[in-house]
Design goal:
- By secondary structure, this protein is α+β, with helices and mostly antiparallel strands.
- The chain has 2 helices and 5 strands, in the order ααβββββ.
- The protein has helices at about 15-35, 50-60; strands spanning about 60-65, 70, 80-90, 95-105, 115.
- The strands form 2 sheets. The protein has a 3-stranded antiparallel β-sheet, with no helix packed on it. Strands 1-2 form a two-stranded antiparallel ribbon.
- Helix 1 packs across helix 2 (about 50-60).
- The longest helix has 20 residues, at about 15-35.
- Keywords: Membrane, Transmembrane, Transmembrane helix.
């Protein structure tokens, strides 16, 4: 079944960053299985699935999500490091707000990997550093 054209609250991952990583992982395994089973019009069900075979295929996959994120793995089967930098900020009512103030993306050139919006950061005890 092709779900690429489906748009509803169950397939929108933009508001759920943790679940979005699971979504990308499931799609990565699906791409690897698709390659292993040689799925064109039908899949070859007689193929023996071994963990090492799946890992080897995972290392070779590369695809983009509908949000435009590129998914691929290194020679060890690990994804490229990408972290959102979160700053805990106390609101006027005392509640905590988790604000994104930057991004670290190891897939970018070295001089562009770390991007922090210092002006958006709230420091402890209202310090400036």
């Amino acid at each position: 079944e092709d779900l690429t054209g489906v748009e509803n609250s169950f397939t929108d991952m933009s508001l759920m960053p943790i679940f979005y990583n699971v979504y990308k992982g499931v799609y990565a395994v699906a791409h690897a299985l698709h390659d292993i089973l040689n799925c064109n019009k039908t899949c070859h069900n007689d193929v023996q699935l071994e963990p090492l075979t799946i890992l080897q295929h995972l290392q070779r996959i590369r695809f983009k999500t509908k949000e435009g994120d590129e998914v691929y793995f290194n020679e060890n089967g690990d994804p490229t490091a990408k972290y959102e930098i979160i700053n805990w900020q106390r609101k006027e009512n005392g509640m905590l707000n988790f604000a994104a103030v930057g991004l670290y993306d190891a897939s970018l050139p070295a001089d562009k990997q770390l991007d922090v919006k210092i002006g958006s950061t709230v420091w402890a005890k209202n310090s400036l550093q």
